[in-house]
Amino acid sequence: MFNPFLLRLMHAAELGDQEIQAVEELCRQPRDIGAKKYLSRDGDEMHSFPVVLSGWAARYQILRNGARQITRLLLPGDAFYFDCSPNGIAIEEVITLSPCKIVNITHADMRRLIDRFPAVGEAMRSYGCMENAVLASWVVNVGRRDALERMAHLICEAHYRLSLVDAHQGQQIYFPLTQDDLADVLGLTPVHINRKLQQLRQEGLITLRSKQLTIHDLRTLQQIAGFDPSYLAPRVQTLRERERLRVIAA
Amino acid sequence: MFNPFLLRLMHAAELGDQEIQAVEELCRQPRDIGAKKYLSRDGDEMHSFPVVLSGWAARYQILRNGARQITRLLLPGDAFYFDCSPNGIAIEEVITLSPCKIVNITHADMRRLIDRFPAVGEAMRSYGCMENAVLASWVVNVGRRDALERMAHLICEAHYRLSLVDAHQGQQIYFPLTQDDLADVLGLTPVHINRKLQQLRQEGLITLRSKQLTIHDLRTLQQIAGFDPSYLAPRVQTLRERERLRVIAA
DNA sequence: CAGGGTAACTTTTGATCAAGAGAAGCCGGT
DNA sequence: ACCGGCTTCTCTTGATCAAAAGTTACCCTG
Q1: Do A71 and B140 touch (CB under 8 A)?
Q2: Chain C: nucleotides under 7 Å from a protein CB?
Q3: Which residue in A67, A86, A136 is closest to B235 by CB distance?
Q4: What is the pLDDT of residues A148-167, one digit of tens each?
Q5: How far apart are CA B34 and CA A16, in angstroms?
Q6: What are the angstrom distances between the C-alpha of A112 and each of A26, A70, A115, A124, A186?
Q7: Which of A103, B122, B135, B213 has its Cβ near the most Cβ atoms within 10 Å?
């Protein structure tokens, strides 16, 4: 089993063998956890942060009127690292959307690691930039795109992000969001999601059945969404590095 | 003149005299810059990052259809640090919304500083968490709040963030956003912004004239917005530290 | 038989279009 | 430096329209 979190970091900065080994070390004891379990609750003191090694999770907020907005999707390789207020208190809830493999890394361990290997600190910063970019793209999505464009953009984003940590990823991806979840990601109602999903299906762009999403026409989907993956693109790698990445991912 | 960037970092982590001095060192050469000037353009290689010492700036994206969405407001003390793709290319544009005092810090300098003083690295991480939280709250704002609530929330956020770096801040704040800008922050049209602004005025909650915003009834505003500042709250400080902060801010 | 998905219909919110009033900067002239 | 007068942003308001939300009920499948 390869480690998608490590892969993320290697996309973000060049790591040597020692660094790689040290990161692996921290991911030793993953635990399996079911769908709809909390990884963090509002007000928790975060001595450690969860890292998703497989499965999907979501960070969200609930408003007074009961409305929910998902503010982030945690896909394999994603960490809940830049997600607490400066006083170390979790400000949002995180829930698994599917069965997941999770490892918890203490902030103390991470700090020690960064002190020893500055490159890891740089990789985390870079990872933070990526997260920040995704978040900003969500603001744009919800703020300025209509329902169909939002759906298309989300699908493109998910597909691209998954492809970064799983080379075997084809046009068929595991997509465990229910229509209710989608509504809470895109700031729409479930009924509306359904309609727009229909539209994408009718136009022959996707099929989505029992959490399997197949993309038939990525080009058109990107076209609709105005999707440009450069905001997620990994740093340019040397040939040797790319080779090593392939070995690790195998 | 105190340094709001330093203040931000001190809210985020406990810094000693040496760290403080070293940060001050990096902010030595601020430059004045007018309104509507670019601090970063799409595709720029970011060898350094701008820090806003006074004035307002905004990060935004433009869509194919010409629509603009502001994804972040840079207030005094804010840094454009977690805002490039992993390959170091700026992915969004940043423009000043008012005359600003800006200092550019090279990534190389920052890395050296962090290597020497891990506490600064921790402060930057913590600052990143705050940014991330603001971004997430914007997703919620645009995704699940109606026009009036969004306006109210933005005002509460701006007021609170400014109060963190300027102790003299009262209920009257400098608020240079035009109604067009507001529209692009909140994902609405300028016309609609105007109407909702009228409503807030008529209800006696605010006055806004020539870039001066006065908040008459913060409580009700927060009520409307469902605003809870804990996501922005600084880490708890010791009494001695708070004293020192006051001296620095004076 | 419950949860998730679909359909039809009504209502609301916010967008669009258009036109005019203020305000603020810019210019040349004294 | 001071002053009209011009241009260009901003802001304001009304009328009309479309997108998406609310509501309710039905269906399908595990």
Answers
A1: yes
A2: 4-8, 13-18, 23-24
A3: A86
A4: 999 999 999 999 999 998 87
A5: 45
A6: 11, 32, 5, 13, 38
A7: B135
